[in-house]
TrEMBL record:
InterPro entries reported in the protein's UniProt record: RNaseH-like_sf (IPR012337), RNaseH_sf (IPR036397)
GO MF terms held by the record: nucleic acid binding
Organism encoding this protein: Lacipirellula limnantheis
Protein name: Exonuclease
Amino acid sequence: MPYVMVDVESDGPIPGDYSMICFGAVIVEPALNRTFYGRLRPISDAYAPEALAVSGFTREECMEFDEPRAVMEAFGAWVREECRGRAMFVSDNNGFDWQFVNWYFHHFTGGNPFGYSSTNLGSLYKGLHRDVQLNFKHLRRTMHTHHPVDDARGNAEAMLAMRQMGLKISFA
């Protein structure tokens, strides 16, 4: 099963009322060279300035980004092209990232190529070590910059390190 590490930046806490501004994805494999990056025009007038600030973009810049439908169609095509079989969505905070990607896929394309499931990277690490107090973030090599491809790559590096520690995942 191919694993796709995803990171989302948004301008608020929930999809629909607020917008996914950009996201990045990396196929989890040793090379970490298969990536996707999308920047999406806001879908509502609402935004939280402090949330938008994390992305590093201004509202005016975001208004020039690509139409969400086109970005989600391109991402879906990329997932289907790059992944043989069912792809598994993984993220550092899948309660946040998954809700945006899943909502956008269903709203703009009518379906989600990842299906109905996602995996939380932090939970994998905690389970691997049988300790819910542990944090995996020290395993990242790429700096966490809030550029979603950098952040997805760093999280994919952490997942590859977990594989070296005994996490049973395969690259398919």
